[in-house]
Amino acid sequence: MENASERPSTSVEDYVKVIYDLQERGSGPVTISAMAERLSVSNSSVSGMLRKLGELGLVSHRRYGDVRLTETGDKAALAVLRRHRLLETYLVEALGYSWDEVHDEAEILEHVVSDRFVDRIAAYLGDPAVDPHGDPIPTREGSVPERETQLLSAADEGTTGVIVRVNDSDPDLLRHLAEQDIGIGMRVELVERRPFGGPLIVRTGAPGEQREQALGLVAAEAVWVAPAHEHGHTGGGSGEGERGPSRPRS
């Protein structure tokens, strides 16, 4: 079992995690500029670190080309994502944090806790499949279940599904969604796309309790939905997602 002292450096872990996350969520290749934006550093800083990651055998990258994790890089990224997402889940479930508070805390803790500690958290929580934002939690062996999902912003009018994932990098956005009463496990229908980059009109809630509301494009680009049949969701708006309550704590 790996101890924190035997792992790659904090900066290396941060980089492989971001590369994996961009690969997982993105619709195109991972670029230096996209990494720089996510990490709030310069393009030249990213280029320098990519050379180091290449020497460590964690990434494959050609100049002016896209960035890809190697098999070793994937393994390293999944290990840190498992720690991060289990820590977020523990902070919400056991310590009463709200979903907009846990990301920054987990960013710090993920580099210092032991794998034994993380395994104890997983056992205590009942080996959850997803974290409070619906992000899949890698298993100890490094596997991640695949789901048929799409961004709400990319859906066609009339699309109906269940919210299964929300991007967690912006606490203000998470608070906004909570204020709009939008959370994991909620049934949602895209009713209308307003022209010229206007908001999306969505219908949420269970039959008989539905309401329509406007959702800005930035927010819609952070919400992932799955077909109701895949999610195993029959009633809509039940308040239950793949694990636990759909509404973030405040």
What does this structure look like?
This protein is of the alpha+beta class and 250 residues long. It has 2 domains: 1-146, Winged helix-like DNA-binding domain superfamily/Winged helix DNA-binding domain (Arc Repressor Mutant, subunit A); 150-231, Ferrous iron transport protein A (FeoA) (SH3 type barrels). It has 9 helices and 8 strands. It has a 6-stranded antiparallel sheet with strand order 3-8-4-5-6-7. Strands 1-2 form a two-stranded antiparallel sheet. α1 (10-25) crosses α2 (32-39), α1 (10-25) packs across α4 (71-93) and α4 (71-93) packs across α6 (115-125). Residues 233-248 have low confidence and may be disordered.
- CATH 2nd-level architecture of the largest domain: Orthogonal Bundle
What is the total domain count? 2
Strand content: 5-15%
Radius of gyration over C-alpha positions, nearest whole angstrom: 19 Å
Low-confidence stretches: 233-248
Structural class comes to: alpha+beta
Number of strands: 8
By DSSP (H or I, 4+ residues per run), the number of helices equals: 9
Average pLDDT taken over every residue? 87
CATH superfamily of the largest domain, by name, is: Winged helix-like DNA-binding domain superfamily/Winged helix DNA-binding domain
For the biggest β-sheet, the strand order reads: 3-8-4-5-6-7
How would you spell out the order of helices and strands?
A: HHHEEHHHEEHEEEHEH
First and last CA, distance? 36 Å
**Shape verdict:** globular
Family: Belongs to the DtxR/MntR family.
Organism: Streptomonospora wellingtoniae
Keywords: Activator, Cytoplasm, DNA-binding, Iron, Manganese, Repressor, Transcription, Transcription regulation
Subunit structure: Homodimer.
